[in-house]
């Protein structure tokens, strides 16, 4: 059982299940050892980029003495999108109650990527402070609960590329005012722009719509 106050508190081991601990490769590999000594760990998954392969092999050798299975997953292409894809898929396999992510091990980019992915997927993350693991507060927010099927249809259409609003309305078989409503929302409903899923840019006399970074991740099923 994990105990957490309003502020970051020390994590307490109390009849804990065995966890899958995810850790990005980076500047502080020693933080990984602190985490697995605190939590019963059934498997470690190391996230790495191609340039870190040599460091990865060394860390795997250092972990042999713990006799815990170690897997590695390469963050290919955009490390942020790759981290979102990995955690979304892993959550489906393991369930969020069996996952813990150590965000103190990675470099700046991978730490930001996995922490953001944890926030939007409801996966618990912890950092190491004063040689103790501290649970980080998670934002339990789900886009899926507030995105209607009509808004989802717009997002899928924008996956094909940027388009002006009139052409988008034709694609999704909605009137332009209705598309504008889904973009901007009202007092009782969040719009896609306010949610950070869609962006619009002026191009001459036309307004062009495109997916934002979070919109691409959501449309691909990574949130």
Please explain how this structure is put together.
The chain is α/β, with parallel strands linked by helices. The chain has two domains: 19-135, Rossmann fold (3-Layer(aba) Sandwich); 143-217, Arc Repressor Mutant, subunit A. 37% of the residues lie in helices and 21% in strands. The protein is built from eight helices and nine strands. Strands 3-2-1-4-5-6 form a six-stranded mixed beta sheet, with helices on both faces. Strand 8 and strand 9 (206-211) form a beta hairpin. Helix 6 (165-172) packs across helix 7. The two termini are 26 Å apart. Mean pLDDT is 85; it is low at 1-14.
Label the CATH architecture of the largest domain: 3-Layer(aba) Sandwich
Q: What is the H-and-E element order?
A: EHEHEHEHEEHEHHEEH
The name of the CATH topology of the largest domain is: Rossmann fold
Averaged pLDDT: 85
According to CATH, what is the class of the largest domain? Alpha Beta
Structural class: alpha/beta
- What kind of sheet is the major sheet? 6 strands, mixed
Provide a concise account of the structure shown.
37% of the residues lie in helices and 21% in strands.
Helices, strands, pairings?
Elements: E1 19-24, H1 30-38, E2 41-48, H2 53-62, E3 70-74, H3 79-94, E4 99-102, H4 108-121, E5 125-129, E6 132-135, H5 149-158, E7 163-164, H6 165-172, H7 176-184, E8 198-203, E9 206-211, H8 213-219
Helix pairs in contact: 3-4, 6-7
